[in-house]
Each structure stands twice: as structure tokens, then as C-alpha cells.
Design goal:
globular; 320 residues; Leucine Aminopeptidase, subunit E, domain 1; two-stranded antiparallel ribbon; 8-stranded mixed beta sheet; 18% strand; alpha/beta; 10 helices
């Protein structure tokens, strides 16, 4: 696995030279409320070529934690990486009216819009190469200037919440009430990786291996960057049902492949945010299925074949 792009940016300079292009009045409002243009500090950005899976499945004893709800960004940032459920064009819809996981992260970390514009200018704003192989983009040290509450709350004007397409139809007052500004703002580190889309029927082996390689590359890159930025610090990955919303991925299979990728990469801890009771049940089923197909040290290819034999099927988009 090779780092093909590395840049260190100053956040204030980045915003000044590459101002964000916000096409949504609600996004402009959030940006103003959280003082997005005032962001500061160094930002480390890297892009990574797809890594080859280990030939033998030697699995680390990764601490797996099942978490309630969505990302809470609690604790310090050293060695802690949150997944960005990315488009192949990294942060591409940050300025749109949509507020799915990717766009929500960009709104809460407003310098990502300027970073997107800078990466476009350098031809590096992609999480896949021309052949469709994964090229995860890692961003370390960005300020999280606000939290946007997306859960339903009729008392403050969002009876159905603000997530996804509902953000665009909300009132300005409802958006204003949903924004909680952080003073001082904490910092976050992100792994932007694009999930596969457009699948139908049963997952085939090639699809399963591609998903595993994508997650493994992103996780292994985070381990490498943790060692560079915070020597001696354990690496923690925070994730959820990556690719299981608009893309219709199978929750149990995406659980299996992310847990396996973390253990193959040697990650110390993986925190999985399952949202609700249904999510916790899917996580539990996927985790159990992984344990049932493991055979100890063995060729990774054989393990992938057994996962494919579980005959998981693609679902349908949730419309967000």
C-alpha cells in the first residue's frame, strides 16, 4: 500500500484561497452560524493506492465496541478516525441541499468544502482511480465547528427530522434551532472511502473482495497515519453501516467485512455505531456470522469464498 498524495494545508489559508461553493441557503446558514470561515490549524491530507490483502488471514485481537446512535465524536482525536461514507468524488455534494452522512460531516466540519475545492484544483479529489480501484482519502486535524441535530423533534420545527432530503424542505428557523456551535471546536480525523453501488441480487465474490480491499486499505492507511502523527498511540476506527443507505448495501455483510478488515489491518479498536435496535440486531447477526466462518490462520482467499457462500443479497436504497 502506497501513499500517492500528501499535502499539509493551513486551514485559514485554505478557506481564503478556495472559498466553499454553497448552493443551498440552509448550508450557507449553517456555515455562518458556526463561523466556518474562521477555521484554523494545520490539516494533513493523504490519498492511498489500494493495498493487497494479506495472503494469510492472521487476525488481530481488535476490541470491537457496539455503540448506540450515530457518531458522537466523544473524546480526544489522537489516533481516532471516523469514516466518511464518501462518493467517488470526495466531498462532492457538500454544498448541495442534501444532508446524508457525507454532507452532514462536511457541514459540521466546514473546512471540508474548501478542501474539496483545493483537491479538485490539484486533480486529487477522488476516492477511486480510473479503473475503479479504491484510493481512500484521509484528512487529519479538521475543526468540528458545530453539531447539527437531525433527529425528529416537533417542538423545534422538525417533526420528521433533518436527515437526507428533509433538510432541503425544513424552515430556516428549524435549521437554526438544530445547530449547536462548539467553542472551542474539537478536531476530527476522517477516512473517506466510497462504498460500492448499483448491485442487484446476491453478492458475487468479486464484489465482496472489492469491499474488503476498500475497507482494509482505508483502515491500514489510518494505522500508518496514526503512527506518523501520534507515535505509540493506538488506532481507533469509528464506523457504521457504510454503503447501506442510498446504495442499498447489506447491513450484515458490511458488518462482516468491516470487522474483518479491521482485524486484518491490526486496528486496536473499532467502534460500530448501529443507530437503533434493528441496527444492533443486524450488527449482532453479522458479527456472529463472521465468527462462524473463521478457521484461524488460513489463506485469505478461502475465507472470502466462505463469506461469499453465505449468499447475502443487495437491498434497496433508502432514498437519501
Amino acid at each position: 500500500m502506497r501513499c500517492s498524495f500528501r499535502r499539509d494545508y493551513d486551514a485559514a489559508t485554505l478557506v481564503r484561497t478556495h472559498p466553499p461553493r454553497l448552493r443551498s441557503a440552509h448550508k450557507e446558514l449553517v456555515y455562518e452560524l458556526c463561523g466556518g470561515a474562521a477555521t484554523t490549524g494545520p490539516i494533513a491530507v493523504t490519498r492511498w493506492e489500494a493495498g493487497a490483502l494479506p495472503a494469510t488471514a492472521e487476525l488481530a485481537a481488535t476490541d470491537i465496541a457496539l455503540m448506540a446512535g450515530h457518531f458522537d465524536y466523544a473524546g480526544g482525536d489522537a489516533g481516532v478516525w471516523h469514516l466518511n461514507f464518501a462518493d467517488p468524488h470526495v466531498f462532492a455534494y457538500y454544498g448541495s441541499q442534501l444532508l446524508a452522512q457525507d454532507e452532514l460531516q462536511c457541514a459540521e466540519h466546514p473546512v471540508l468544502g474548501s478542501l474539496r475545492e483545493a483537491l479538485v484544483a490539484e486533480g486529487a479529489a477522488l476516492t477511486e482511480d480510473e479503473a475503479g480501484a479504491p484510493t481512500p482519502v484521509l484528512v487529519a486535524g479538521i475543526e468540528r465547528r458545530c453539531t447539527i441535530e437531525t433527529a425528529p423533534d416537533p417542538a423545534v420545527g422538525r417533526p420528521h427530522g433533518l436527515y437526507g432530503n428533509r433538510f432541503a424542505t425544513a424552515s430556516a428557523d428549524a435549521v437554526r434551532a438544530a445547530v449547536r456551535v462548539h467553542r472551542p471546536p474539537p478536531r476530527s480525523n476522517l477516512i473517506a472511502i466510497a462504498a460500492p453501488s448499483g448491485g442487484r441480487g446476491e453478492y458475487v465474490r468479486r464484489e465482496i473482495e472489492t469491499i474488503l480491499v476498500t475497507a482494509y486499505t482505508g483502515f491500514a492507511a489510518a494505522l500508518s497515519e496514526t503512527e506518523r502523527l501520534w507515535p505509540g498511540t493506538p488506532t481507533e476506527i469509528r464506523t457504521g453501516f457504510w454503503g447501506c443507505g442510498a446504495f442499498g448495501g447489506n447491513r450484515q455483510l458490511m458488518t462482516i467485512l468491516q470487522l474483518l478488515a479491521a482485524r486484518l489491518a491490526g486496528i486496536s479498536r473499532l467502534a460500530f455505531y448501529a443507530f437503533d435496535d434493528a441496527g444492533r440486531a443486524d450488527f449482532a447477526a453479522g458479527s456472529k456470522a463472521l465468527e462462524q466462518v473463521l478457521r484461524g490462520s488460513e489463506p485469505t482467499a478461502e475465507l472470502i469464498e466462505r463469506i461469499a457462500d453465505l449468499d447475502y443479497c443487495w437491498g434497496t436504497s433508502d432514498g437519501n
